[in-house]
Amino acid sequence: MAQRQDSDKESRRILERIASETDPGGTSFVARAAKGARDHVSAADADRSDPIEIWGTRVGRVIGLLLALGLMVWLVLFLSRGS
Hints:
Radius of gyration: 20 Å
Number of strands: 0
Helix content: over 70%
Order of helices and strands: HHH
Mean pLDDT: 85
Low-confidence stretches: none
Strand content: under 5%
Shape: extended
Number of helices: 3
Number of domains: 1
Distance between the termini: 68 Å
């Protein structure tokens, strides 16, 4: 019985999240995307009881972001040179 209640709570939580994300009166897509990116880079999902994990996650994600941006710049420069 307890497992069914947990399942019901999880289902309600998912439905509420979907409703809030698709609500036209809510925040804009750009604002939600910016908040999601900020939360991702700042390691909002990391274990708060372990400061090493928080900083390690932040450093790793920032390095990944810089690497991705560098590769995009390189690709644009490579394609703009032409043949």
